[in-house]
Amino acid sequence: MSGLTTYETAYLVGGRGRAALVAFIALAADGRLDVAYGRQRVKVARDEATDRIETAALALVPESGLTVAEFIEQVAATEPVKALNAAVVAKGLLRPLRWFSPAYRELVAHPGTGLHRVAVLGVPGIEDERLRDVLEHPRPEVPKVARHKSVTDNTTDGTIGPNQNSFYGP
User: Fold this and answer.
1) Which of 133, 136, 135, 114 is nearest to 125 (CA)?
2) Contacts of 137 (CB under 8 A, 6+ apart)
3) Sign of the CA dihedral 84, 89, 93, 98?
4) Please, are residues 98 and 111 in contact by the beta-carbon 8 Å criterion?
């Protein structure tokens, strides 16, 4: 559908989370984000941005990196992504029930290719198998384990040792 940016298309079809997903794919696909596939973490490789959403997304990533899930969640909460609502409403395309919108039905019927396909279909529309796998099979959160308090047996001061009721008693 003409007149919509890729991010507006993503917002129209899938909301803020879909727009954040498109930003992640755009940045990862052209090498601006380094993705550690095994650990599912991202770091900034190049801080070149072509859009306000991408600028905000790159600014979120600390030097230590973020998990993919944290990155997408934080990008979805940025002001440029929230502003997509006003842009789509201004074009008269956003309705309370999106599937009744002719624009929505046209987009779903003809998802297109590349980022536009990701904007319409979400994770199933990602052509890069490794990126799609990261999003389809997220790593579980590492459980928080309480620190173990070690118990030491101190036998030199006589607190632990033979007593009258033991086998080794006097």
Assistant:
1) 114
2) none
3) positive
4) no
- For the chain, give every domain's residue range: 6-136
Over its length of 170 residues, how does the chain's per-residue pLDDT go in tens digits?
557 889 998 998 888 999 999 999 999 999 999 998 888 889 999 988 889 999 999 999 999 889 999 999 999 999 999 999 888 888 777 666 665 677 777 888 888 888 989 999 999 999 999 999 988 887 766 677 777 666 555 555 555 555 555 555 55
pTM of the model: 0.76
CB atoms near residue 35 (< 10 Å) = 23
Provide the sign of the torsion angle of the four alpha carbons 68, 81, 6, 107, taken in this order. positive
**C-alpha separations of 32 from 28, 55, 67, 139 in Å:** 6, 11, 16, 23
Enclosing H/E stretch for 66: strand 66-67
